[in-house]
Each structure stands twice: as structure tokens, then as C-alpha cells.
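sorry for the late reply, my laptop died twice this morning and i had to redo everyting from scratch. anyway the thing you sent over, i finally got around to it. pasting the sequence first so we're on the same page, its 320 residues, then the predicted structure underneath. double check i copied it right bc i was rushing
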Amino acid sequence: MGILAGNAKDSKIFNSQVKGDVEGTGAVGGMIGHMEGSTVENGMAQVTVRTTGRAAGAQALAGGIAGEASDDSRIIDCQVRTGDNSTSRIQGTDATVGGIVGLQNGAALYNTYVNGTIGGSGSQNVGGLVGERISGDLKVGRFEGMIGQSGTGAAGHRGTFIGYRAPANYFKYGDDIAYLFADTEAKIANNVCGSGISDDNQYTYAAHIGYSHAKDNFFTLVSGGVTRDVDERYFYEELEQGILSIVDEELGGEMDAESVGYDLDHFAPNDAGRPVRGYLIMPDVLKQAPEAIRSIFSSGITTGGLTAIIANVVIRVKEN
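ok and here's the structure:
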């Protein structure tokens, strides 16, 4: 069950926004109940989702975009915003619950964002982005919500990004899982994956796992419980680096929408230096400028800072 479709097979859904409450049995999603070989790109879901139990033997699954995404499905450039009280969130009793998908089974999730509370009383496996991962990429994801208390004790699994994976469903940081960021250090300390398998949370700085800063536009990477503050590039640059890594590693450097079936968003700074969709482009006039000038604008931090200053001046002029 979903606001757009209960099931989507070999389908493409672009530039869609949904808002509302969804409740049902089995696989329940803010947009789609079950995705099979389908793509959702540039989706925005402002939803509360609840699965009330199994349906005809199928798992109870809840997700902000889809209950289940399988068979080479792709969720690209999607955002989910849900509530924070006990009824207005994404949840389900004895269910697998994720901010983006309940169950990821052979699907790719690129550039996703979740805000709000995921999971609740009785929710079995809960992840900020994915409830349970069987297989598929999870890259460039941000979780700025909370994982709800389930009350299931040792029987339940809770992770900041991935709630659970079975021992046989191995993943490799950097190759399969990379560029995942929360908005506080505490959320990263609460485990990237909550399955309890010994190596689930063993990753190096090369995996690009960390948290953004509220006080500035930089970020911190984490490795083995050790943190490293990064101040040589802005957070939006880190996210853009993640996007470019997907283009290089997964798409062979090809970013033509007709060739790959979708067009990944890029990142640029807003007037406060925070990440937003967009591009930083060097105008032709700067390409003809002396090397000293071009070197200034080759720095993302410098360009981002100048962008923020100019934008603030323009805004103040407009206000006056």
C-alpha cells in the first residue's frame, strides 16, 4: 500500500510529491508499497506510515518512500519528512521500518534524506534510512531524525542508518555503503548498523561516515570511534564528492540521464553555506582571468564563502 501505488513493477516515477497518512498490512510506503525493478527520482514524501502486520505471509514493512525496494529498483534524490509524536511517524508493530525503505533487497539508494522519528513501540528492526538490508548500494544519505524506542529489548535491532542485516548478507564499507551523515556525534556512536554483528560498525575514514556541524559549515568523519574534524572543505563539498564518486564508480563516469536512467542531483552552498541542490560553475570570463584569480575560485571553500557574502549583500539590498 502506498499513496501513489501498492505495487510498482518496471516503472519510473519522477518529480513527485506526496503528503498524507498511510496505514495497512504487509509492505506499506509513503509513495509505494512494493517496488520491483522501478525508479523513484526527485521524490518528496511528507508522510506518516504504519504497517499493522503481515499480509498473506508477507513481512510487515514500513518506509517513507517504499515498504520494499527490490530487483534493481533505484531511489534517487529523495527526501522524507515525518512527525515526532507517538502516532505521527513511520512505524509498525513487529515490523521492519526504515526512513526511506523498510526492506532493501537488490536496490540502490543514492542521495537520500530523512527527518523525523522512525520506529515506535513494537517495531522490530529500525533504521534511519533502511530497516533491513539484504543487498544494494546505500550512498550519500543523511539522517537528521530520531530512532524511536521500540521496547523490544534484545529482540529488536536499531541503527542510525541500517536497522538490521542477516549474517549472510555481507556488505563492504566504501564499496556498498558510503557517505552517510547524521547531524550529531551521538547518532553515529549509536551504530551505523544495528544488527549486532561484530564487524558491522568497523569502518575507516575512507568510508566517509560522520556528522555535520550545527555551529559551522564543516563536518566530522569517524573511524573506529575516533573522530577527525574536517575544515579544509565544506560539508556541501563532501556531499558533492559523494555524488561524483557514484558517477565514477557506479556509472563509469557517465552522467547522461538517457544512458543511466536517472540524473543525480549535485550540491552547492546556499547563502548560509549549507548544502542545497545546484552547481558551482566557473563563468567563461573567469576562465580567461590570470592564474591567481582562477586559483581563488578553484577553492570550494573560498567560492562558497564569497557566494554567501554576495548573497547576503543582495538580500539586504532587496530588504532595504
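The radius of gyration is 20 Å.
thats about all i looked at so far, will dig more tmrw
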